[in-house]
Each structure stands twice: as structure tokens, then as C-alpha cells.
Amino acid sequence: MDNKQYSTRELFRRFAPYFKKYRFTLWMDLFCAALTTVCELVLPLIMRYITNEGLRDLASLSVKTILSLGVLYFGLRIVDCIASYYMSDMGHVMGAKIETDMRRDAYNHLQKLSNTYYNNTKVGQIMGRITNDLFDVTEFAHHCPEEFFIAGIKTVISFIILANINLPLTLMIFLCVPLMCGVCMILNFRMRSAFRKQRNQIGELNARIEDSLLGHKVVKAFTNEEVENVKFEKDNGTFLDIKKLTYRYMAAFNTTVKLFDGLMYLVVLVAGGIFMVNGRIAAGDLVAYMLYVSTLIATIRRIIEFAEQFQRGMTGIERFLQIVDADIEIFDEPDAIELKDPKGEISFEKVSFEYPDDHNKVFTDLNLQIHAGEKVAIVGPSGGGKTTLCNLIPRFYDVSEGRILLDGQDIKHFTLKSLRGNIGIVQQDVYLFSGTIYENIAYGRPGASKEDVINAAKRAGAHEFIMGLKDGYDTYVGERGVKLSGGQKQRISIARVFLKNPPIIILDEATSALDNESEFAVAKSLGELSEGRTTLTIAHRLSSIRNSDRILVLTDDGIVEEGNHDQLMEQKGIYYQFYETANALK
Ligand code: ADP
Ligand code: MG
Questions:
Q1: Would you list the DSSP string of 201-265?
Q2: Mean pLDDT of the chain
Q3: Which of 480, 549, 534 is nearest to 502 (CA)?
Q4: Where found (predicted)?
């Protein structure tokens, strides 16, 4: 995964469009924020008025005046409460909606990413990014505009009021602000890098847990529980170290703020006191002044507290962007057309291929011609590139050089959806989704009728064993199909292809986990399925490919032998040796 780092500006620029849909809520939120701020700022003014008037001439303050001021204050508090309620409810909902939108975008993007991406990315890392990391974005999306806005107006208004009460004192206080901001910014920057590391380490931890839990059978078989614990403890310890670092920065940050706000109070206390003794500020004014300085400091404190949330949010957005900015390596060409009812003629023209990030060439200048409707089998040593060859036809990977043609057209000219839609592939490593057997077969053609699903299962030789299970088609297969045997899983994945019923079929060791008897039955069905369709079969058991129109022997040197069974036996080459060895082992 590309762990590109983004500048704060870039993060804001990319995040801002998510507010577009919720403009109204956002404006209302800011409006309410302004209301609550104004309400809060009026209170010290009332206090100032009462104190100054009382000290000047106690008789001038009637109970009526105080009561009206009380009513005014109460009214303002009600407005404040309503506005706060709106902010807290709608503001958070807006944040949650943005989080949902972002998660959707990330998930949709993940669906488009190629095998290469998944080969190089830990699932645990992705999981963290689209779940936990985005939780922080909800808070951020809601609080960020609001907090900055409130802080902005509070600081400006406080400053104006403070300057009005006493300008020299105010200037003294505000001298502390740039200094404080400077120190805070440095610490903030450090905090971001610590949060980044923290998130990344959580991802690593997730990936480690996932890996060892999924591999629990291997762990048990080798009694490596202790080894797993040690590996886990290492990652867990690293996480603790990073957390410690984060807390150290946070503590430094909070202490700095405390230091500075102490300094501000000190200025007000000493300078304000001297000013009062000298008669340069009235007692009521000093009281109001103190209250405003408290408001100001509270605002700064809030911003500081928010700094942590801000950094978490920023890290969350950054990790989100690292997903949505991951290259979609395999995509539709701009002028791609729909592939409709292909005849199924496939040719490889001087195809070279190497896995990205791995510079070992699997094929060099491979030429291969498969006629429409032909049944071609590939045999060869393990690691010879059979699976890789199968993966190139549906464009799970793109060729490095040369091209693959389908009905005379480069496969890149077809839309991925229509190309893959016309190919049925039973992959070597069968994957079942957690759910029922029925759902897993129906995955081959979403929306298929029950009858079709059962029919497909019958043809794949799966119906009988399914009916033998307690819940039949409604049996849960467990995560990744753990509750089924290898052969049963294989038959379900074959049933998917029967249901899909595509014109081109690729079977990558599709019957390898079946016993001889069921293989015979399934092979018969597969024979029927491949009737009149282009079929590419890879099999390690040579008996199942004897009847192929053509057999290719694929080794590290490319296709080294080619012909039907009898021809290859006559050649007495590699195929002959394979066949003899297999027979000798029987
Ligand atoms: P076969 O199916 O004939 O056993 P494969 O096509 O699976 O062989 O593998 C061919 C070669 O490509 C092997 O050397 C293997 O190590 C390599 N290979 C397979 N998959 C990948 C991958 N995802 N990334 C890098 N190399 C791979
Ligand atoms: Mg293989």
C-alpha cells in the first residue's frame, strides 16, 4: 500500500467536497455556533454593568432593572440551549453521514483495485482504515468547522471587548498569543506524526491477529501458540511505545497551554491590579475583564483539546485517501466496447508477463492459439505458470508485453464487466463466502431462480451431498467454507460456473480435491458443460484431460509440447514421462 503523506492543505482540499451535500446543515450549524457564542459573551457584560452601576451609585440599580437583566439572561440561555441542541444532534449526524459517504467511496474503490494491490496489502490494514480510522472523521467533520468558527468569533469579540475596556492591558495579553501558537504548532506537528504511527501500528496489529486466527489450524498443528504469542507481544509492545510517545506530546502540549494561560492570568492580576490602584481601570471593568480573559482562555483550552481530535481526524482522512488514491491498475480503456456472444477464439501473441514488483518473467514471447469451441488442456510442472496463464485471459493481470486476442480483438478493447461476464472460471483456490450453500451457488448468477440453482448443483455433482446435510441448501458453510471438505467446496464452485453458463470456460485444477469416483461424475458434467464452448482445462490428473482436443505442456521454457494424447505419447517427451510416472504410481 502506498503510504503517501499529505500536507494539511491537501487534506482539507480533498475533504472539503464531502460537505457539499450537507451545505444547509453546515451553515445552520455555524449559525447556531455563532448564536451560542454571542449568548455566552453577553453574560460578562451584564455582570460588568451591574458591578459598575452598583459601585457608582447603588440607588440607581432598581430590582426592576435587575429582574429585566435576569429575563434577558434567561432568554439568551434558552436560545443558547436550542442552538446547542441542534449543533450536537444535527452536527454529529452530518459528521456521521460524511463518514458513511467516505466509507462507501473507499469500499467502492477497493472493489476496483487489482490483484496486485491485494497481493501487497494486508487486509487488517484496510479493515482499520475503513472502520476505526473513519470514526474519528465523524467527530472531526462536525467539530472542525464549528470549533474553528466559534474560536474565531470568540477571540475576535473578546479582543474587541477587552480592548474597549482597557487597551494597554489587552495588548500585553495578546503578546502571549503568537508565542503560544508557535509552540503549539510545533507540538501539533509532532502529534500528527505520532498518530500516524499509532494508526499504522493498529493496522499491523489487526493484520497480525487476522493472520494468526485464520491460520489457527497450522498454529495448532505445529503447537506454535507460544511463537504466535511472542510475535504478537512484539507488535503489541511497539503499539504501547507509540502510544507512550503520543501521550508525551499531548502532555507537553497541555502543559504548554497551562503555562501560557497562567501567564495571561498573571498579567491581568499584576498589571490589572496596578492599573486599578492607579485608577486607570474601574473595579467592575476589572471583574468583566477577568471574566473575558477566562472566556478567552477557555476558548484556547478548547482549541487545544480539539487539537488532538483534529490530528486524529487528519490521520483518518490521510489513511482514507491512501486507499482512494491507490491506482486502479486494470480498468476499461476509454473506447472499450461490450463483448457480446463471443465465438471464443483466443490467441496469445508474443505474450510476456512478469508479476508487478517481482521481476521474474513467468512467460516470454508466448504464442498460443485456441480455436473457438476447442477443448485445450494444459499440463506442466508446478510453478510453470498455468494459473498465471489462466489469470491473464479475464485480465486479473495485464500482460507486460504482447497481447491477447479474443475473436481477433485485443481483450483490452472490451469492457472488463463484459469480458469477465463471458468467462467462467473455477479457480484453483476455491473461496466460499460466509453464508449458505444456496447463496454461494447463486453467486454465479445473482437473481437466478431456485430451480436453476439446484439444477446447477446437480450438474456439478453437488446436489447429493448437499441434500445429505442437515439443513440442505440452507447449510451455513462457515467462514471461507470451513465447514465443508475441499471436494465439496470445489463442487460448489463448479456449480457456480454451471449457473453462470458462460461461453468460455477456464478450469484451474477444478477437480483436484475430488476422489476418483466423484471426479469421474463431475468430469462428465464438465464435459457436457464444455460442449461447443472454448474450454481451457488444467489438471494434474492426466486421465481427466485425455479427451481434450489438444494438450499443451507448459514449463519454464514456455510451451514445449503440443498435440493430442496419442500424438504426445508417440513423441515420448515430457508428457509421456508424466503419464508413465503417474501410471507407475497407481
Ligand atoms: P502453476 O499454476 O503452473 O503451478 P503459477 O502460475 O501459480 O504456476 O506460478 C507461476 C510462477 O509465478 C511461480 O514461479 C510463482 O512463484 C509465481 N507467482 C505466482 N503468483 C504470483 C504472484 N501473485 N506474485 C508473484 N509471483 C507469483
Ligand atoms: Mg496453479
A1: HHHHHHHHHHHHHHTHHHHHHTT-HHHHHHHHHHHHHHHHHHHHHHHHHHHHHHHHHHHHHHHHH
A2: 89
A3: 534
A4: Cell membrane
Virtual torsion, Cα 218, 219, 223, 229, nearest 10 deg: 170
pLDDT at 404: 97
pTM given for the model: 0.84
Residues 6+ apart with CB under 8 A from 256: 180, 183, 184, 187
Is any atom of ligand 1 closer than 6 Å to the C-beta of 358? yes
C-beta 383 within 6 A of ligand 1: yes
Domains, the chain: 8-324 (1.20.1560.10), 346-585 (3.40.50.300)
Is the C-beta atom of 327 inside 6 A of ligand 1? no
Radius of gyration (C-alpha) of the chain in whole angstroms:
35
Chain Cα centroid distance, residue 395:
23
Higher-pLDDT residue of 343, 53: 343
**Which of the ligands is closest to the CA of residue 383?**
1
Say what the pLDDT of residue 536 is. 95
Q: Are 323 and 110 in contact (CB under 8 A)?
A: yes
Neighbours of 63 (CB within 10 A): 8
Which amino acid, one-letter code, is at 174?
Answer: F
In short, whether 352's Cβ falls inside 6 Å of ligand 1 is no
